[in-house]
Amino acid sequence: MKGYLIIVVVLILFSCGDDPINDRFGLAVEEEILVSNVWKVGTFQDGSTNSAAVYNSVFIQFNDNNTFDLINEARNVYGGEWALTENNSLLVIRNHETTPDIYKDIGDEWVVAKINDQELRIIERDGDGQEEFTFLPATQIELSGICTALQKRFVDSLWTISYFSNNGADLTNSLRNYTFDFDDSGVLRAFNNNVADIGSWVTGIRCGKLRINLKNSSDLKPLSTKWKVIYSSPQLIKLVSERAEKNMEVHFSTQNAILLTDDEICLRSNEIIKNGYWRASKYIEGYDRPTVPFAGFILKFDRNDELIAISNTKKIVGEWNFIETCNKIAIHFSDTSLKEISGTTWHLTHLSDSLITLLVEDDIERREIHLVKQTDPQEKCNFLKQFLNDNFSWKVTKFDENGDLLTEEFSSSKIAFASDNSLKILSGNNVILGEWVLNDDCEAITISISEDQVSFSRLNAFWHITEFSEEQLVLVHEENDIRKEMVLTKN
After folding, report:
1. Which domain of life is it from (predicted)?
2. What is the number of domains present in the chain?
3. Are both 330 and 268 inside the same structural domain?
4. Burial of 23 (0-12, 13-18, 19+ CB in 10 A)
């Protein structure tokens, strides 16, 4: 009897030591193996039933920051957290609240029964081991397909921000009006009615991560960091900042995204760049910041592709035009005073009502220019004065008064705006004298000529400057029942 009892005890001890469920201890996990693979569900045993069909083509990626991604056959991404406890033998998985109920089984405490580069097997800690998962490493073809599908999700739609928080503060309203276009070449364009910011985006080696670079707009700058995808569907992508101390979360949604064609984007960009006067505030060569060599010039992007540069001493006319989908701009001046900006095709990295940033970067050189809009009315006035002052260079090519065309009365005359605000009209052998003056904000010009000059006294008025270019100045006067329109064209 003693021998029999001893045998029974030995068998019981052996049995308990061999079953990780009964003694609640599994294999010690090397975390590097867990996080270095993307795992595909091979089998899922729910009691005596193989329920793997639910997890068909489901992949799990354990990240080194203790988050995980569950990626299903439709390439939707659901997130959660994981941890190793009890001497790294127990794997704790917690699903994110967005994870569908059909995948709820994965959220549990699991004893690691087997782990190596070829297989991961985990068994439910509670419930007498009724549930069991076996994972196999994803193949390179499968990994490539996952990453391509997730990147394509960003590219296939235009996105708006439906939620943005920074350290617990809800800042959604500051970004709600932007539309984001993720290009498959890595270009990221963000635009609203007043801003077109062009940056970049790139996904990491582990395709649940990406980096955004949009640093030229103060509203968009917080988005420029590394992000982790915690949820992804065709209509909604949720990201959290990869660095926990940044504590940011952003949701991209396809709802309310503004669908603009390339032509519409170009039209909007044209409206922004042509509206106002610009001065260079920063010039970067390589990574040095020398004094801006052409800071003394004010620039005006004209509507007929002329670029006018005016300083206190000279006026230079060059050329500019958008290239491709208006994300590049070509500039040319023959005058060497502007050689640093001339003869180059620039990448337009930011365009807003207040700032233009231009970049050229290749294996040979790197240059960057920042142009800021001039809000001081005096800057505009100086520009207009330089623009107008040119001896007898203007001719009336249209004069309309209440629908009557009176252009012929001025057809043989030439007009000169002098720098001392005197006005001279050369008509045959006669010179008619008058005055001109810009109003305070230089949006209008007052012309005064002696009333005894009957024909030319029609010019006496307070004229609104509705349009001007290197070749043409359009003036409109409206008072009571009188409406005049005069077009001056440079000879």
Report:
1. Bacteria
2. 4
3. yes
4. exposed
